[in-house]
Amino acid sequence: MPRTVSDAPQETTTRLEARGVTLLYGERTISRDLTFKVPDRLFTVIVGPNACGKSTLLRALARILRPGAGQVVLDGKQIDRIPARDVARTLGLLPQSSVAPDGITVADLVARGRYPHQTFLQRWSEADETAVAWAMRTARVEDLSGRAVDELSGGQRQRVWIAMVLAQETPLLLLDEPTTFLDIAHQIELLNLLRDLNRRQGHTVVAVLHDLNQACRYADHIVAMRDGRILAEGDPRSVMTAERVREVFGLASVVIADPVTGDPLIVPLDEPAAPPPEML
Prior knowledge:
Layout: E1 16-25, E2 28-38, E3 43-47, H1 54-61, E4 69-74, E5 77-78, H2 84-90, E6 91-94, H3 106-111, H4 126-138, H5 154-167, E7 172-176, H6 184-201, E8 204-208, H7 212-218, E9 221-226, E10 229-234, H8 236-239, H9 242-249, E11 253-257, E12 264-268
Parallel strand pairs: 3-8, 3-9, 6-7, 7-8
Antiparallel strand pairs: 1-2, 1-4, 4-5, 9-10, 11-12
Helix pairs in contact: 4-5
């Protein structure tokens, strides 16, 4: 797939976008006049230091957080004017932290992903059963189906929440740090799954990741944020340079080609980088 990039957002087709939004966390302004278009049918990864606004942006895109100004638009309509069930049929969210009801089993929690597809007249269907079975098999939690979620390890719980989002069967997936609690083998397995959903089934995927090398390997489109602003977005090979890593993270590094994929491979240096200009 050909990739193009510049420091400014590119014109692209999109079903989901933030238009000039101001995002608040309590009384604190996280982002002001932020505009971002989610590229259709691509795997987008958002990177940046802690507390830079990555998760806040994802929550706004998912209609969890209402902007203080501006608007989030889904399929040409202001998202907070679309019925919640309709949004949930289109957009699935894996938040950074989730709490399951006490005593709920894995199978019951994953089944909750089918709620948007049910109506007063039509409750549980064969399609629901098929979707849940596929999601549990794909997330490798079939053998946990009868266990209580609160008895599981952190990595097991994370896979169960991922299964619930997959059972929702939405064309847009937003995932906030989906590899949290997962060992390296399960991290790669999950990222391969997301890439497969994107490339083979056409899902639009947006994920917040902390591992820059995983971001560069899996993203078609990468977004670098700092202090509530998007500093650059586009092809990882053009965005993730040593200069950009220094600007975004204040980290001295060497960026070489990944020997397997040719994507950027970021090697931190022992010497500390000077702080970004705005911090001086």
